[in-house]
Amino acid sequence: MNPYEKKRRWKFFLLIFAILIGIASVFYTDSFVKKMEREEANQIQLWVKIQERSMFLMDNDNFTEIVESVRKNTKAPVVVVDSSGHITTYFGLDSTKTNYSTDNKLTYDSLYFVHQLSKMKAQHMPLEMNILGTSYKAYYKDSFILTQLRYFPYIQMIVIFLFLLTAYAAFSSSRRAEQDHVWVGLAKETAHQLGTPISSLMAWTELMKSKFDAEDDPLIAEMENDIKRLEIITDRFSKIGSKPILEDHTVYIVISNFIDYFKVRTSDKVKFSITGDDQVRAMLNIPLFDWVIENLLKNAANAIENEGSIAINIIENLAKEQVFIDVTDSGKGIPRSKFDAVFQPGYTTRKRGWGLGLSLTKRIVENYHSGEIFVKDSELGKGTTFRIILKSSLTYEPTTA
């Protein structure tokens, strides 16, 4: 299993674990809420029974104390209506709306009672009361504490989710900064270590040319080309972590020069072609941009199992002053679900691959050239098209009639 798959699997397990914790919290709180709901219902039933007997035991001081005690311990708001639907008594409601003073007269908010009564009817069935042969109905709703408890697990899950999201973003940012620091140090150290053997190889080729009179020998010329290639690679590594210098170049020429170098080092069964606008220009850093093209061409060549083709098409977008570079291969294709994943560090379909090429390509295009790269299109068994978008270095003035 490659590092990308491992990381994705760990994220999946952590997500499932967090969901299970949330579900367990919801179920536990729900059972606790139902228990409180039963206790409140029992309190209301006790209050109803006491009210039914209150007319017979009004003169009993002990009973009066019991009535007050039950009323104080009943947290749920209650409204009692007669057979005609008129409110006869209530408790537990907002006192500022049930009984307040205006112009030295006590009054109440009638709409408030209507609203509260409708909420009570929606939550619970009324309890029947019979006092001295007269029928009443006692409506009640959940207490404030019980209402809060109903929403508590969902609020808790939102808070936990926001905390995990913030923590994940912070740790990811810290880890990314640490990884960037390691990669920059490794790249610069690699460039430093390559410097000595490259200088030695350059000296050996010069010695061979002078000793064997081989100035025009094609083998030595190819060796010199490879040494120059090593110099370019060293220059690439030395630029990692530093702001590269961008210069104005013709995109067609830059890509064509690299293809001339690359195709002789690839299988003859893979055919290369470059088409499109040969005049469009963009601000490029040649060593780094060659690295982008190299990674795309290598991935395209690896995707072609037998014979195939790799085509590069350069398109000018006049309206947005952009350059489109489409790299199309006739390889095995990429599933649509993996269009974004291919740029993740560690993602690879090759057993011996590291999964860093396209990740590095994306960084070079976006961070160093202020461009964009993505999988434009792909079909399994038919091929893939990657698109690079760069800012054109040419400014176009609208024509006037």
UniProtKB/TrEMBL annotation:
* InterPro entries in UniProt: HATPase_C_sf, HATPase_dom, His_kinase_dom, HisK_dim/P_dom, Sig_transdc_His_kin-like_C
GO molecular function of the protein, one example? kinase activity
> Record's Pfam families?
HATPase_c
Q: Catalysed reaction(s)?
A: ATP + protein L-histidine = ADP + protein N-phospho-L-histidine
The transmembrane residues are: 12-29, 151-171
**Nucleotide-binding listed as a keyword:** yes
**Enzyme Commission number:** 2.7.13.3
Which Gene3D superfamilies does the protein's record reference? Histidine kinase-like ATPase, C-terminal domain (3.30.565.10)
Histidine kinase domain ranges (all copies): 189-394
Q: What keywords is this UniProt entry annotated with?
A: ATP-binding, Kinase, Membrane, Nucleotide-binding, Phosphoprotein, Transferase, Transmembrane, Transmembrane helix, Two-component regulatory system
Please give the PANTHER family that the UniProt record associates with this protein: PEROXIDE STRESS-ACTIVATED HISTIDINE KINASE MAK3 (PTHR43065:SF10), SENSOR HISTIDINE KINASE (PTHR43065)
* Listed name of the protein: histidine kinase
Q: Specify the species.
A: Pedobacter fastidiosus
